[in-house]
Amino acid sequence: ETGVTQTPRHLVMGMTNKKSLKCEQHLGHNAMYWYKQSAKKPLELMFVYNFKEQTENNSVPSRFSPECPNSSHLFLHLHTLQPEDSALYLCASSQGRIVEDTEAFFGQGTRLTVV
Amino acid sequence: GESVGLHLPTLSVQEGDNSIINCAYSNSASDYFIWYKQESGKGPQFIIDIRSNMDKRQGQRVTVLLNKTVKHLSLQIAATQPGDSAVYFCAENILLGGQNFVFGPGTRLSVLP
Questions:
Q1: Is A54 left (phi over 0), alpha (psi -120 to 50) or beta?
Q2: Which of A37, A79, B38, B87 has its CA 20 to 30 A from that of B74?
Q3: Does residue A60 belong to the interface with chain B, where contact is any CB pair within 8 Å?
Q4: What single DSSP character describes residue A104?
């Protein structure tokens, strides 16, 4: 276990559904990330939160909506997704940009299938 | 193992042999590099890191080499074992300048019995 927990592990949703992915980290980190890993591309950074503030939105469509209520929790709200959004969504956390060790710890991911 | 690309470079090695996985990074300003291992059905896991003021760092059975001149990183695994079969990613970052790790496409390592 890496200290980063994602739920659910698997999710199948229709294109008209609304669902949310959850990430929780128990490492005391200040930065949290959403990544997308699909069959055709390397890991793609989607969103970055640093001290609960969104510091990066990597040109992600608005059908993906992140939420970071506190430094330990990160959500990704999904609505009206497309089949091409099917992928593994990975959450990660790190200390942040200031300190020495900025290794990112990843969760197990949520395997999302849009039908 | 469906979490990785269909067209990943693949390295096949015999059990017990040494493996060398290569990575070309993109940003000459990057000063911190990590190798991650991703096993089937799991998220990436940290293996070893190196800062740009070093050109070599050793861990347990693994060695990372950094050549800043040609922006090249390699991961050497000694005495490769079946449990080493996974996809390996390099990631680059800029300490004190940004916190957004940029990942390479990954290499699939297959260990043959």
A1: beta
A2: A37
A3: no
A4: P
* B15-57 residue pLDDT tens: 999 999 999 998 888 888 999 999 988 899 999 999 999 999 9
Distance from CA of A106 to the nearest CA of B (A): 6
Residue A58 clears pLDDT 90, i.e. is over it: no
Does position B61 have pLDDT exceeding 50, yes or no? yes
Tokens of B37: 């291992």
Contact check, Cβ <8 Å, A102/B93: yes
CA distance B99 to chain A (A): 5
HSE at residue B112, side-chain half, CA atoms within 13 A, is 7
Number of A–B residue contacts, CB under 8 Å: 69
* B48: its two tokens: 């070893």
Tell me how far apart the alpha carbons of residues B96 and B94 are, in angstroms, rounded to a whole number.
6
